[in-house]
Amino acid sequence: MNTDTHAAHAADHHHGDSHAHGTFSSYMLGFVLSVVLTAIPFWLVMSGALPSKQITALVIMAFAVVQIVVHMIYFLHMSPKSENGWSMMALIFTIVMVVIALSGSLWVMNHLNSNMMPMHEMTGMR
Amino acid sequence: MTVAVNPTQTGEPVFYLADEHPHPEGYSTSLGFWIYLMSDCLIFAMLFAAFGVLGGNYAAGPAPKDLFDLDLVAVNTSMLLLSSITYGFAMLTMQQNKIALTQMWLAITGLFGAAFIGIELTEFAHMIHEGATPQRSAFLSAFFTLVGTHGLHVSCGLIWLVTLMVQVWKFGLIEANRRRLMCLSMFWHFLDVVWIGVFTFVYLLGVLR
User: Fold this and answer.
1) How far apart are CA B209 and CA B202, in angstroms?
2) Within an 8 Å CB–CB cutoff, is residue A79 touching chain B?
3) Tell me: the pLDDT tens digits for B169-180?
4) Where are the alpha helices (DSSP H) in chain A?
5) Of A45, A76, A101, which has the smallest distance from its Cβ to B204's Cβ?
6) What do you get for the CA distance between the two ends of chain B, in Å?
7) In this structure, which of B5, B90, B145, B190 has its CB flanked by the most CB atoms within 10 Å?
8) Which candidate in B27, B44, B193 is best for mutational testing of the A interface (most A CBs within 10 A)?
9) Residue B207, number of CB atoms within 10 A of its CB
């Protein structure tokens, strides 16, 4: 969206409606990209085209990240300018929280599992 | 901010707004709704974390490979993706003030959403019929909580969608209805974003495991 008309629009009374809207072509571009970014990971897993599971896992996670960004831009109309940057601030804060929660949980619980005493040692402890 | 005027003259203070700047109705709705969505995002992050921690604990029960039908998940994913683009068309026709077309695209969005919920419930019923209930293992508890919460959100979105269609039918595309439709638009597309995480981490990585 044009930034000048956006700013002028925001100063208007229709502020509630001034949130960036997409156009037909931007929606279609987002949709086509999403279809491609969904089809490839499904195909990779269902056909087992890549030699190892680790590589396949990394590739489909990369596709998910790219598709989330595509949705954010073309469907949710995120831009650094929307709502004077406050929605981007809220998004960045949330992403930081999500990364801490996810990586922290997985890391701590993984260590907890690997530091657990194996069952056969436990039976020999009596 | 309120300021007291001449409190000594009459004995009783009189208050008025010192920095009054009236905002039009719905002035900050988009930002407020976005912050709500971010809080929702945190809920899903916790459920993803729980699934990440517990997803491998099958308790000698069925594993993702035995349960998930990727063809069905692919169909389900396309239902949600199609409903996202049809909602986009509803927003575009709304901007052009075409009430009948907006209602039509909203109805099509609702049908795709209902198809998604229908397929998901069929999948759940099939799993439960095979004995893969939430009580069976930590993996299945985490699975049903995460995917079920997403399904519940979509179901609430459907109720909201029908409510807004009635509102548009009764009052037309007034300012308030446009604002509401825009909030639901964000909600609907956000659920699609969460589903990207679900089909990647739960279904695809689960089958790969």
Assistant:
1) 10
2) no
3) 999 999 999 999
4) 3-11, 24-47, 53-74, 86-115, 119-123
5) A45
6) 59
7) B90
8) B193
9) 18
